[in-house]
Specification:
Layout: H1 5-25, H2 32-37, H3 44-55, H4 58-70, H5 77-92, H6 94-97, H7 107-112, H8 115-148, H9 152-200, H10 204-214, H11 233-247, H12 252-259, H13 264-298, H14 311-319, H15 324-360, H16 366-390, H17 398-422, H18 428-448, H19 456-474
Helix pairs in contact: 1-9, 1-15, 3-9, 3-12, 3-13, 3-15, 4-13, 4-15, 5-11, 5-13, 8-9, 8-15, 8-16, 8-17, 8-18, 9-13, 9-15, 9-16, 10-13, 11-17, 11-19, 15-16, 17-18, 17-19, 18-19
């Protein structure tokens, strides 16, 4: 299928506008402070919307409506845990990042344990972030493929290259300001789509509630404790809290935003408010899924849907009025690019500050660090494009794959941070043992058990922490890096 000239023109103008705006807003990024942290002078409300936009990828925009289309509203139990986890980050981890001048989350590990722990943690972050966000890129490209009929690899490449360009030139300031624009675009797109859906259902909101309730689509809470089911209340509260504690507390993509704030109170304000905004977003996109279910019950599609991820995209392309299709597709790509640009900038910053600079020593001058950061932005962009092209061979739903990878690694890194905070006798060797045991254990859980993904961060962090503590009693006692 394809879209008309007007909608295509709107979409191309939007993509070109984002590209031009991002490049212009970051035109003065001449130092590592400017390029990596926006000069550490960005307002808290800008950071708030950037945090929200970054975690609201195309996975949220397309797969969350697909979830409620197929199931119900039980996904809302997970954002409850996300809010709890954010407050834990505010009190446990944020003060660590504002104790001295830092560029990455993993510099805290260097200060506490030493350079080896910092580099291993950074490497894990880079690898898994590239995998998860490459899959997000794949999901966005599905829509571009359906819209134009071009081959999926070309769709992935087009979106990836567009994001690489403005991230390359603009740095962190460009990422945050374009995040704000993209937040407004995709939220407007979601609200417009929901309004049109209600207009297309004869009885509007009332009929949606009646049909959705009769089909069990409005069920919000599942009180059962089944560790193989991801959408239960306990998985949401406990698993979601630890996942948020990891993703927003030790993931460089988020931490880099806090470090761009003017001070610690501003970073705290941006983080806790973001939890409630994200919960409201999930509610909106889940209700869109319920409305899609009602609409397609009343208007069965000529061609059955291959996967729930494609339902909302098909509605946009087939049912939206001319002109609004371009706006909605712009919203889809806004959600994608806000996450991808953040991922590229944070991966490049981590690689330069945590791996290249310590190894290069005095040769890592500020100008060289800036050049390497820009170069690696392109490299990681190409890696994510490759992962996105490979995403077409996945069997599971994309959203489960993305969040499974995120929980897989954030729990391990969170466990190492716990060792630094709560186990003073643990030195670098014991921390690395804990990290290794956590990685092996989570690999086994990921590939050979049915444990639901919301539990990954909790299990990974506790397993890593316990392994590190036990290793500290077995290995010779070490002095911490702070004492050296």
């Amino acid at each position: 299928m394809s879209i008309g000239g007007l909608d295509l023109g709107i979409l191309l103008v939007y993509l070109g506008g984002v590209l031009a705006f991002g490049t212009w807003i970051g035109r003065n990024a001449k130092t590592t402070d400017d390029y990596m942290l926006g000069g550490k002078n960005l307002p808290w409300w800008l950071i708030l919307f950037s945090v929200v936009a970054t975690e609201t990828s195309t996975v949220t925009f397309l797969s969350i409506p697909g979830f409620s289309f197929d199931n119900d509203l039980t996904w809302l139990q997970i954002p409850l845990g996300f809010i709890i986890g954010r407050f834990a980050v505010i009190f446990l981890l944020l003060p660590q990042y504002f104790d001295g001048k830092m560029f990455t989350a993993y510099e805290v590990l260097h200060r506490r344990f030493g350079g080896a722990t910092e580099r291993v943690a950074s490497g894990i972050f880079i690898v898994t972030r590239s995998l998860a966000d490459g899959l997000r890129l794949f999901l966005s490209a599905i829509i571009l493929q359906e819209m134009t009929g071009i081959a999926l690899p070309w769709a992935v490449a087009l979106l990836g290259v567009t994001t690489i360009v403005y991230t390359f030139f603009g740095g962190m300031r460009a990422v945050l300001w374009t995040d704000l624009v993209q937040f407004m675009v995709y939220m407007s797109g979601g609200l417009i789509a929901f309004w049109i859906l209600l207009e297309r259902i004869p009885g509007g909101w009332g009929q949606m509630i009646e049909m959705g309730g009769a089909a069990g689509k409005l069920r919000m809470f599942d009180l059962s404790l089944d560790f193989t089911q991801p959408y239960g209340l306990w998985a949401g509260l406990l698993g979601g809290a630890f996942l948020s504690l990891g993703s927003h507390g030790v993931d460089q993509m988020m931490v880099q935003r806090y470090l761009s704030a003017r001070n610690l109170p501003d970073a705290r304000r941006a983080l806790w408010v973001s939890g409630f905004v994200v919960a409201a977003q999930f509610a909106l996109f889940l209700l869109i899924g319920v409305a899609l279910y009602c609409f397609y019950q009343l208007n069965p599609p000529a061609v059955p849907f291959e996967r729930a991820d494609r339902v909302f995209g098909r509605f946009i392309l087939n049912e939206m009025p001319v002109g609004l299709i371009g706006v909605l597709l712009g919203a889809v790509f806004a959600a994608a690019m806000s996450t991808l640009s953040s991922s590229l900038n944070s991966c490049a910053t981590t690689a330069v500050k945590d791996i290249y600079s310590p190894l290069a020593g005095e040769r890592a001058t500020p100008s060289r660090q800036l050049r390497w950061t820009r170069l690696l932005t392109v490299v990681f962009g190409l890696v994510q494009i490759a992962v996105g092209i490979g995403g077409q061979w996945l069997n599971s739903t994309v959203v489960s794959s993305v969040l499974g990878i995120a929980g897989f690694t954030t729990g391990i890194l969170l466990g190492v941070f716990f060792l630094g905070l709560f186990a003073r006798r643990v030195g670098q060797r014991a921390a690395l043992v804990g990290l290794t045991v956590g990685l092996v254990g989570m690999s086994w859980i990921f590939f050979y058990t049915d444990l639901a993904w919301p539990w990954y961060a909790l299990v990974g962090s506790i397993g890593t922490y316990l392994a590190g503590v036990i290793a500290s009693f077995v290995l010779p006692r070490e002095r911490s890096a702070e004492a050296v």
